Amino acid sequence: MSVPSKRNKIPTISGIHLQSHTLIEFMKRPNEDGTSIGAALGQNESRWIKSVTEQKHGTLIIPVASLPDDYAISRFLAKVGLESLASRLIDIEGGLDEIVDKPELNELRSYVRIGTPGRVWPYSCRSIYPPDFLFVKEGETFEVLHEYDILVTDSSEFYIVVALFGVEYALNLGGREIDGYYKWLQHNDNRSPLYSGKNTQL
Q: 145 versus 99: which is more confidently predicted?
């Protein structure tokens, strides 16, 4: 998606040019009109350029990017959930103590800090809009890279709901159960909490 890092650099993708046996680093950078162009840098640039210019056909092998496994994703979501709770309580006297000392969060805190290899904290995952979807607000178009909120159900369950490039993730902050989230979706026409209730106008 050509999203720059904190150092304002767009990550590269490594590939191999078979004919010249050259490792290529592909990178994308945006044009002024918002589109992207690609560039390639070879370890042996002269050999690679010679091979490309002299041959009519060539082969580039580029590995397909893969998502992190469920264990890594669920621990990431749990961490986001704890930090989201802390950000809401940081300005309230004793608020952070509530996050640190609340026994109902003991298991979640341990999962984030230490983990339980082989035992994934369950979460929901679904697409709610295309990754390159353009939103329109006041005549301006824009993309949403990420968004999040905390959903509190009628059963007093707290869920962290995160969307990354249109993929929505939800994780129960109080226990290893996700059924309450699916019930909430059934009762709300499967609309994302990020675009319903108080977030309807977002």
A: 145
